[in-house]
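Hello again, I could really use a second opinion on something today. My current little project is about how a certain protein chain folds up. You're getting the sequence in one-letter code plus the fold written as tokens. Here's the protein in full, and shout if anything looks odd to you:
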Amino acid sequence: MRRSISIGVVFILAAAVAGPAFAGKVGWVEVEKVLNKVQEGRLKLRELEEWAKPRRENLQKMREHVTELHQKLAKERGVASEDALEKLQKQTVDAGRRLEDATREFKRDFEKKQNELLAGVAQKMRRVIEDYAKANGYDAVLIFKPRTIIYLSDTADLTDTIIKEYDQRFPAKLRTSDQLGDIGGKKKH
């Protein structure tokens, strides 16, 4: 499952790194890939997933409860009394509203937690990109956003280089090799 990086984090990086556009030596970086590949980013994303897992499970239980209420209501139509149907309808609507509220709250909290966890990585990435660009004579380094670019030469892709530079400058403090597995439980071999 592909994880999207918060728009806020991307805009912070875009504003900090892209700067004014002009002719000259130009490169680009796929920020989402860097965040998913650098050791520290992978650890932070794993931490975010661990934080989110019980909340997602709770939302799933709430969804299942709402589905059960809908099924019960459909089953009871035509057999239950009008009062019983009204009561069940109210329970179903209330459960649906609680689910909607909990989903919105989760999304807000997830984005806030994501920004908290990835802000440090984003700032370090910005420094690595700036330092690399200056040391290698780049006039501009752009943030890659697939939906807004028509063509980019692969030779201008600095993403893998930035990943290597980042991990060299900011090695993550690993407790176990297991921590660098891909998000969602899949591990690289």
In short: Helices lie at 7-18, 31-37, 39-76, 82-135, 159-169. The longest strand covers residues 26-29. The radius of gyration is 23 Å. The longest helix spans residues 82-135.
